[in-house]
Amino acid sequence: MAVKRILLGVTGGIAAYKSAELVRLLKKSGHEVRVVMTRGAEAFVTPLTFQALSGEPVRTSLLDPEAESGMGHIELAKWADQIVIAPASADFIARLAQGMADDLLTTLCCATEAPIAVAPAMNQAMWSNGRTQRNIALLESDPQICLWGPDQGAQACGDTGPGRMLEPAALHDLVDGNAQGALSGRRVIITAGPTREPIDPVRYISNHSSGKMGYALAAAARAAGAEVILVSGPVSISQPAGVEVRGVMTAQDMLQEAGRAVDEGCDLFIATAAVADYRPDSCAGDKIKKSDESMNLSLVRNPDTLATIAAREDAPFTVGFAAETRDVEHYALDKLTRKKLNMIVANDVSAPGLGFNSDDNAVTVLWSQGRQSIGPAPKAVLAQRLIALIAEQLTDNAGPTGAF
Ligand code: PMT
After folding, report:
1. 139, 159, 179: which is the final residue of a domain?
2. CA 306 to ligand 1 center in whole angstroms
3. Claim to verify: residue 321 and residue 381 sit in the same structural domain
4. What is the pLDDT of residues 317-363, one digit of tens each?
């Protein structure tokens, strides 16, 4: 982990008190930290708190002759390797999205060439508001900016929902594992969501995959600079900004669409999709009428997209997921070897609140030279750490292994 010069921007919100802990954690990891506060932030925490924790003077004003005679704002913008805005209020997000420079923090964001990570924190209704979401979409389409969070859950105002700032430990991990730029120039193809295998015109076989894990990985890979194609089964979540989504329905469609996307060029293939292993051997032309008799469905095996891509002569770096409810690592290692993958993400889906159709996940990544556990964490956070790890291995790795 490289030591970084981090400029922490604190804006006005109750979560500002948590940023004091973030400064402590970043300093403990050896990073240099300088804090800039907006006027709103000063209503919640004093500059003295951040000065004591960072060991550096805290900047609060753009037009401050005394502070400017030390390290001027342009110098400060150039000093930073990484800007982190935590908490980022709805007001600050709106001003950043419009490219305003009406206080020190927005001016620094305009003047810096460093990546800017934004950790939103606000009431759930403010987060869901259409104007906030339009501003968020603008930030998501900006290659210099990446969003860290928000999380969801109980809020200081008594509401429950999305808008909580990520916990300081999660933000600290994101700074350490930050993958910005790590996949620039790479073409990444990700499968996500479930497949649906039709029984008749109104019924199908499927599973509980929501697509959240795959979509979070697509957003993280995009933030890391990659061109990203998402081959997605039917889901009802929104498309990550800057990512091309190619929709499919069945396992056979997924194989065909993923193969076509890889033919167009692919450096990294990540399979998060929960593909139905079997499909009905035929689909009835009309709705099957019920009778008093029991009914047998005849199923045939579906093609395996991931194994097919990994077996190609021009195979990209391949990463599979293994969703298991017991002997998780044992089965994951078997898939790593059998499907000749570079890495496998072992996903224990037996724990409540993790895995299928949840906002959080916990995984153990296995590859020939190592293993790393990540989470439990929100899928967005986990995805960024996963992309950082995969990017590291992609750079180091000479060719497929799959062997232990
Ligand atoms: O979508 P979410 O609700 O966010 O949930 C995320 C998840 C739990 C679906 C995800 O994290 C996960 O674990 N995905 C793997 C699902 C799975 O059941 O994998 P598997 O063990 O059946 O398959 C192993 C690997 O081969 C997977 O990478 C799978 O995408 C791939 N595969 C499997 C069968 C098949 N016919 N084609 C494939 O490409």
Report:
1. 179
2. 9
3. yes
4. 999 999 999 999 999 999 999 999 999 999 999 988 898 998 889 99
